[in-house]
Amino acid sequence: MTEINLEIESGATMEKVALLDLSLEELTEYLARLGQPAYRARQIWEWIYKRYARSFDEMSNLPKVLREQLKDEAILYPLTIVTQIVSQARDTQKVLFRLPDGQTIETVLMVYDKRRTLCISSQAGCAMGCTFCATAQGGLARNLSAGEIVAQVLFFAGFLADPEAEPQMDLERPTAVTNIVLMGMGEPMHNYDNVWTALRRLTDGDAFGLGARNITLSTVGLIPMIDRMAEEGLQINLAVSLHAPNDDLRGQLVPINRRWKVDDLLAAVARYIEKTHRRVTFEYALMRGVNDSPELAAELGEKLAPLLCHVNVIPLNPIPDSPFQPTSDEDTERFVQILREHGVPATVRLRRGIEINAGCGQLRQASAARRAA
Ligand code: SF4
Predict the structure, then answer these.
(1) Angle at CA of residue 170, ends 167 and 173, nearest 5°
(2) What CATH number does residue 56 fall under?
(3) Rounded to two decimals, what is the model's pTM?
């Protein structure tokens, strides 16, 4: 059972049970230790996963004395809002959350015509060190627990379902989360067990109940974990952040490439496709003068042509003071066209929320900079 150390006013710490980290069986065992019957666990479970309760006071069918006991002993909801902002077009919302130990993470909601897509974090910070990424700059603070991953989804599920929820966005409520991408802060494969516990909770019809095919896990390419994912039996989509077609360039942009080379990574993806018969997405963030030449597009097209795949070309979200800047629209189109000429399906992903620091890790970085100023 996961317990969270909380600082209390005296400076001492006390441990509280993190309810979102528990399975239904574990929740039932926990309540049994409090002298409660099994149906109480089921009631709490429904409040969490079907009604998105964020406080014990909302659980109106629990006895008051139990609610008070739970407040003393357990944490229902591990996230506190630090900053919550909406883009000018009111189609993107980004929240910076504080975790119980003071770490911060980001989650983004993007509203499309029919889809409401969440981009969630799997770690506080990231150890992968990609040179163009704001999250990389602070390194890895720690893994998120399964409950902290799930909580990001429950927050926005509650937001979308509530007609009164602020801030207002460009949508008619009630509505629901339709898609989840693990492309926020962190490398999901580097926190494999907690991420997969969270994914099972999110896809379990008895819990959150989102279809696995509506969830995408994005990795920079931890090969042993791609092989492991192929065995999981859940139809979660795999996306691989490639960003360069050869080791010379990828080694500069994505340091993990020094350990797992491009050709070995593509071989792992081929094994994954053979095993799952599922199409894989390659993410390619186009950076002006770095990885956007026609020659690199042709090299990428040749390497990906044999694979059942799709390339998402992403105009880079510029980081202040970074040497990496987005490719022009014209050069982006040319890059995509060359991939298509090689028989590789490719599309340009819409860039959202530039003015709200929607790139991975940028809001957290801006917040840290404000605190340091
Ligand atoms: S791009 Fe992703 S994997 Fe790379 S450092 Fe940033 S968060 Fe980590």
Answers:
(1) 80
(2) 1.10.150.530
(3) 0.92
